[in-house]
Design the sequence.
């Protein structure tokens, strides 16, 4: 088998060295009842050609975003990733390295993590950032747990614009830990109203901008109000490119930022792997989850980087750790970092503006479609569009016409009063032709 | 379960030899260059705030509609042209060890070869360029792949169901414990404690605590296994689950595992198995046959998805029939010849404990793992386990005369040594690890499991040739001989000498944390 | 000065006691990088964990040798945690307690008993 280097002669020689008659003898501790002499009931191994064919067949049954006018967003966005990003992350030394526990031979990983942390802190306007979380939704859950540790309060308020998957992930993790979660009903533009739900036991308010409906908000007022009540503000962003154009959470009073970094450097990949960005204030860093990389010097006085503040983590603190996280999203974080390096702030600003431009063009086109209303008052690159009919059926009809028109809110929150709303995103990959085809098909389907 | 409360040296000791002078017999370079090894500064030192390596069209519309929401001022993100970006990262990559370079014998990490076919297939547009929330009718191939992967995971483990969404092993542990918690709550039998052996990986107690449980330890016997009498004494109606790794973190198969399962079930608790070491038994032993109720599988270990310098991983959890109904959404279901996603806690998934994370799971890793499974097949997977176990026992056999294994008898896929053989040398496990770096290998796992003093845990995996194993063994034998020779300590304390950097001052990094670049560049 | 089996020391002066970790404990931890101290005013029970001493690779709970109220903490450790290594039984003190029940001191080890304990470890 092509991945197994041992030959029959090797195996015999090694068994002789070990002093075992057969390999079976090495499995002597397996209880007789659990021993299986035969193979499990699965097909035998195949060569590359056959495996490729099998997967090509499966791939061919999907409609890729690049093959259709594409407007799906709702937490995962299609952007163009420069070719060198994917090329660089496939270098052996990045792809096949482990977590950098032996820093002398892992400065490649460690320096890139340090650069990533700095980029994330700069992007979000915060003081420190960690080496990544699994994704934005689990980052949000960990942010809530962290806020509870810092404030010693047990309740979290989830604002009306928070992505339902994020709210569910927070609830699933916070409730077993003994916390309470107050989920405010979905609304297009009601972030500020979250303050009304804050009580003396509230550790934090979790607010998203741009929110599920694409609405961008200035959270400064909310931050002040939340702080006045002794709670923390956790800000979620699911579209990292928006930070190239919009005021960052750090400038609006955020205490913790839990964001999805997928938009930069990482493709759609049907939902994963993605990369959670986690940033906070320096004074809270010892309560933060996840790995942290710090600067130091070696025995010869040369600058180097090491994983640090490890006593927060599971391998030392065990059941008192700030989180159970071990493996995070290293390679996706590297892809984010490389793409960000290629962009620089000048490129990021321009990219963000191109996204906003595409969304403005999308809005103009949708404004011309009878019966269709754009609900989002202030947007970056995503719009909530009210249709005269249930949005799921409309999206399905448009898919049949070869157009991926967006995500019906009912997919994420059925029966929440938004079954006629479609979320449509536009990025720098959206052409004017795509928009025209969407508008035309929408008119047809709604006629 | 106690925190790790015994430390070890975390900064270079004064007085050991400097890198130059004792070992450098070649002439110094004129400008400080070092041949193929290129120096490279931080991005923030070499990049520019106005530089860019991407050509983007000039926007025609502005953001005046956003008013005060617009960001002003410098973000603080430097850029580079494409050639400079490529150089920056290629130069940094030179400073990393990797599986592709040499044996990387980290115990319980399963650093096996990452097949490049899997990388190619994961990048097929039909699998990579699809959005998780596209209409289900447009991603039938993706759902079919996930369903096929689920079938392979269930069959190879003998289990009834699998939750695919967890994003890493620790996340899978959380998934399993939350399903167990839901199962107990559903029958009005909420419990408060989880038991785990003292040798457990830190994620086990950390996860149990996150799932809202108190954690209590199970003692270990002198032969490195779970103490059945202690387990029986500690079980009771307050215990929700017993978390056991099998093979365990000492690299040994738990002989009494059927008894562990029986006692656990008798007490009304569930048996959670940490599947990190599944590589030793895949295709040969099915966890269902051992009485396991839930087990996470690290796709980035047993099923070869790349470690990527710290992830991404994937930790699907196979579940018994008793726990299947509590698995988190989304579920993949086959209806009328088509695949569908059940994404809400309702109908057939009414008892699901909720949703662990956004979307459906680590599809990129599913593609890679599935390609790996198809490539190996039932016969190849069985051979994987056999070669993994053979390789570890071979290394153990060839080193045992110099460094006695921590426990007697055959090991499984990893061999564990303690530091007793270093007594009297003034050297520690750490010094041996650093010496191994100079010989060209990534060190084995050190100081884990905690139950063995100065532990050295060596897992070669099945993708190592005998020649590479022999090369490693020779290096270890040479190190052992040098370490036990008189007067060795001074030299060893200064290792590594041949890595891009010498030992780093971790004390300074923790006392004065500098976690982001600042213009002053230095350390406070 | 008296000692606990968890390697804390306690020095009593009237109704107040100073508590820290011993040189042995500090040596076991390695370079101390951070100390988590309780809030002034907090009441602690004998045997209750009330501080954490951290090195790079380890963290150790510090348990109250006797019951009492925290009246002072060693704020200097924030900027200079290494004092715990340099002077564990002097400048590296952690917390001062107002004793709730001085008779609890009777159950603690004296220097000779503690030295014997360390020798066994």
Sequence:
């Amino acid at each position: 088998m092509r991945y197994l280097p041992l030959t029959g002669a090797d195996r015999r020689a090694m068994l002789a060295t070990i002093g075992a008659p057969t390999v079976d003898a090495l499995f002597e501790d397996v209880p007789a009842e659990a021993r299986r002499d035969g193979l499990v009931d699965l097909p035998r191994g195949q060569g590359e050609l056959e495996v490729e064919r099998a997967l090509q067949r499966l791939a061919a049954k999907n409609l890729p975003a690049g093959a259709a006018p594409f407007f799906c967003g709702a937490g995962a966005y299609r952007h163009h990733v420069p070719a060198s990003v994917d090329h660089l992350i496939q270098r052996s030394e990045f792809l096949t390295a482990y977590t950098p526990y032996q820093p002398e031979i892992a400065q490649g990983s460690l320096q890139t993590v340090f650069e990533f942390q700095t980029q994330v802190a700069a992007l979000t306007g915060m003081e420190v950032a960690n080496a990544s979380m699994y994704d934005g939704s689990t980052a949000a859950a960990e942010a809530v747990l962290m806020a509870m540790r810092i404030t010693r309060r047990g309740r979290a308020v989830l604002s009306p614009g928070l992505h339902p998957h994020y709210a569910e992930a927070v609830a699933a993790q916070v409730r077993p830990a003994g916390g309470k979660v107050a989920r405010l009903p979905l609304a297009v533009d009601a972030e500020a109203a979250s303050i009304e739900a804050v009580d003396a036991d509230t550790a934090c308010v979790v607010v998203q901008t741009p929110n599920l409906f694409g609405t961008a908000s200035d959270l400064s007022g909310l931050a002040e109000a939340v702080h006045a009540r002794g709670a923390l503000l956790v800000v979620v962003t699911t579209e990292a490119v928006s930070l190239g154009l919009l005021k960052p959470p750090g400038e609006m009073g955020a205490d913790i930022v839990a964001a999805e970094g997928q938009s930069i450097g990482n493709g759609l990949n049907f939902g994963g792997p993605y990369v959670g960005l986690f940033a906070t204030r320096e004074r809270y860093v010892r309560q933060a989850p996840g790995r942290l990389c710090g600067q130091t010097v070696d025995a010869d006085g040369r600058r180097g980087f090491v994983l640090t503040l490890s006593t927060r983590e599971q391998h030392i603190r065990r059941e008192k750790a700030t989180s159970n996280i071990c493996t995070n999203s290293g390679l996706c974080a590297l892809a984010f970092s490389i793409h960000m390096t290629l962009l620089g702030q000048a490129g990021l600003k321009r990219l963000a503006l191109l996204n906003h431009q595409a969304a403005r063009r999308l809005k103009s086109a949708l404004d011309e479609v009878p019966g269709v209303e754009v609900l989002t008052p202030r947007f970056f690159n995503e719009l909530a569009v009210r249709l005269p009919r249930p949005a799921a059926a409309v999206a399905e009809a448009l898919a049949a016409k070869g157009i991926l028109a967006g995500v019906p809110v009912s997919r994420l929150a059925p029966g929440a009063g938004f079954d006629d709303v479609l979320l449509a995103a536009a990025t720098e990959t959206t052409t004017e032709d795509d928009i025209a085809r969407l508008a035309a098909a929408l008119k047809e389907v709604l006629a | 379960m106690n925190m790790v409360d015994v430390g070890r040296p975390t900064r270079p000791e004064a007085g050991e030899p400097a890198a130059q002078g004792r070992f450098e017999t070649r002439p110094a370079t004129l400008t400080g260059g070092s041949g193929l090894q290129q120096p490279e500064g931080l991005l923030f030192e070499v990049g520019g705030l106005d530089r860019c390596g991407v050509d983007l069209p000039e926007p025609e519309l502005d953001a005046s509609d956003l008013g005060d929401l617009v960001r002003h001022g410098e973000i603080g993100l430097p850029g580079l042209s494409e050639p400079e970006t490529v150089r920056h990262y290629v130069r940094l990559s030179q400073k990393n060890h990797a599986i592709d370079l040499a044996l990387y014998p980290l115990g319980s990490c399963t650093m096996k070869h990452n097949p490049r076919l899997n990388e190619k297939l994961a990048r097929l547009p039909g699998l990579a360029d699809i959005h998780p929330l596209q209409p289900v009718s447009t991603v039938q191939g993706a759902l079919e792949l996930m369903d096929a992967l689920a079938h392979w995971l269930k069959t190879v483990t003998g289990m009834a169901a699998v939750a695919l969404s967890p994003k890493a092993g620790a996340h899978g542990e959380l998934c399993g414990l939350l399903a167990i918690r839901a199962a107990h709550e559903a029958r009005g039998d909420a419990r408060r404690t989880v038991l785990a052996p003292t040798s457990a990986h830190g994620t086990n107690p950390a996860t149990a605590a996150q799932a809202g449980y108190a954690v209590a330890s199970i003692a270990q016997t002198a032969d490195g296994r779970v103490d059945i009498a202690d387990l029986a004494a500690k079980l009771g109606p307050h215990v929700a689950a017993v978390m056991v790794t099998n093979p365990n973190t000492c690299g040994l198969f738990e002989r009494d595992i059927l008894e562990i399962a029986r006692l656990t079930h008798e007490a009304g608790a569930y048996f959670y198995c940490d599947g990190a070491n599944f590589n030793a038994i895949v295709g040969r032993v099915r966890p269902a046959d051992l009485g396991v109720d839930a087990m996470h599988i690290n796709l980035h270990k047993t099923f070869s998805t790349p470690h990527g310098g710290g992830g991404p991983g994937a930790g699907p959890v196979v579940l018994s029939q008793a726990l299947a109904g509590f698995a988190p959404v989304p579920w993949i279901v086959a209806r009328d010849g088509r695949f569908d996603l059940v994404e809400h806690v309702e109908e057939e998934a009414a008892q699901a404990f909720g949703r662990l994370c956004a979307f459906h799971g680590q599809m990129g890793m599913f593609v890679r793992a599935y390609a790996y499974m198809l490539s190996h097949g039932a016969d190849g997977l069985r051979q994987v386990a056999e070669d993994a176990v053979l390789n570890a026992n071979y290394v153990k056999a060839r080193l045992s005369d110099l460094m006695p294994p921590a426990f007697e008898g055959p090991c499984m896929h990893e061999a564990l040594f303690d530091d007793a053989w270093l007594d009297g040398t003034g050297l520690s496990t750490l010094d041996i690890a650093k010496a191994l770096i100079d010989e060209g290998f990534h060190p084995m796992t050190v100081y884990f499991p905690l139950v063995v003093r100065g532990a050295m845990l060596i897992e070669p995996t099945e993708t190592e040739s005998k020649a590479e194993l022999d090369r490693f063994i020779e290096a270890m034998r040479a190190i052992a001989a040098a370490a036990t020779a008189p007067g060795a300590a001074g030299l060893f304390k200064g290792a590594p000498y041949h890595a891009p950097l010498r030992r780093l001052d971790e004390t300074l990094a923790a006392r004065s944390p500098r976690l982001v670049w600042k213009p002053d560049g230095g350390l406070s | 000065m008296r000692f606990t089996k968890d390697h804390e020391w306690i020095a009593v002066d009237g109704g107040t006691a100073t508590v820290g970790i011993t040189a042995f404990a500090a040596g076991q931890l390695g370079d101390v990088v951070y100390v988590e101290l309780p809030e002034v005013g907090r009441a602690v029970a004998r045997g209750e964990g009330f501080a954490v001493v951290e090195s790079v690779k380890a963290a150790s709970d510090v348990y109250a040798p006797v019951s009492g109220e925290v009246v002072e903490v060693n704020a200097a450790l924030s900027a200079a945690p290494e004092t715990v290594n340099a002077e564990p039984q002097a400048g590296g003190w952690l917390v001062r307690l107002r004793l709730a029940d001085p008779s609890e001191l009777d159950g603690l080890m004296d220097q000779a008993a503690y030295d014997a304990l360390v020798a066994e470890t």
About this structure: Chain A has two domains: 69-80+345-446, 83-339. Chain A touches chain B through 205 residues (CB under 8 Å). The first helix of chain A runs from residue 8 to 18. The CA atoms of residues 146 and 288 of chain A lie 6 Å apart.
